[in-house]
Amino acid sequence: MEDIFSQFGDIFGGHFGGGFSGFGGGGRGQSVNRGSDLRVKVKLTLAEVANGVTKKIKVNKYVACDKCGGTGAFDSNSYSNCSTCHGSGVVTRITNTILGQMQQSSVCPNCGGDGRIITRRCTNCGGEGIVQKEDIVTLNIPAGVADGMQLSVSGKGNAARHGGINGDLLVVIQEEEHPELIRDGNDLIYSLFLSIPDAILGTTAEIPTVDGRVKIKIDPGTQSGKILR
Predict the structure, then answer these.
(1) Taking the mean position of all CA atoms in its chain, how far away is CA 18?
(2) Cα–Cα distance measured from residue 132 to residue 59, given in angstroms and rounded to the nearest whole number
(3) Measured between alpha carbons, how far is 52 from 48 in angstroms, rounded to an integer?
(4) Which residues is 73 bridged to in the sheet?
């Protein structure tokens, strides 16, 4: 609702009580910066896929500068009012139409809606507000994920320039092949080779599972291709 009425306010301006300021609150048109998303691949064994796992991974990403707190300015006095919007954060354009004058407001392209320009930049980040750093992220991967599945970890992506909201970390699952077991959806397939005497007379055999090896009974007269569950 607030976004919808703010658009009407941008179009009609003061014709409707100051641009629907009762709905949107008026003030600067500052937009919220958002950092970019990161995508990483994580390899999982079959046991980790079946049971779920907690993994800690190293991610090289942009984080907020420690020296300026992510603002990009040297200190609180390193600002001046934007000359384009004169500190309001918005620029207004008036267009003549057959219905009269139409007023449209938008975020100032010079200051990005902040209303201020940095005059003295932070020496650590060069005024960007972000620096590149290696971070350790803990991933709680649930049981039953599949190869190629993508999980999203909110707020663990790149930090935004000059403050704002962090992007997300997108985790792409890569399932490592098991040396003996083949995955078929939620089932696992194992091919057991028997000698003719064992198939005729019956025997016990040891087979692998994700949790270790178990013994199964092979009935006498078992035919090739029979499926035991």
Answers:
(1) 38
(2) 10
(3) 5
(4) 121
If you search the block for the tokens 């997108």, which residue do you land on? 170
Tokens of residue 192, six digits: 């057991």
3-class DSSP assignment, residue 138: strand
pLDDT in tens, 96-140: 877 777 888 888 887 777 778 888 889 898 888 899 999 999 999
The answer to whether 111 touches 89, Cβ cutoff 8 Å, is yes
| Amino acid, res. 217 | K
- The CA–CA distances, whole Å, from 111 to 84, 126, 148, 227 equal 8, 17, 41, 69
CA distance 211 to 108: 60
Residues 6+ apart with CB under 8 A from 191: none
Bridge partner residues of 141 (DSSP): 53
40 closest CA partner among 177, 173, 176: 173
Strands of 14-70, DSSP E:
38-44, 53-64
Is the pTM higher than 0.85?
no
Count CB neighbours of 103 within 10 A.
Answer: 16
Q: What is the pLDDT of residues 201-225, one digit of tens each?
A: 999 999 999 888 999 999 999 999 9
Q: How far apart are CA 68 and CA 85, in angstroms?
A: 25
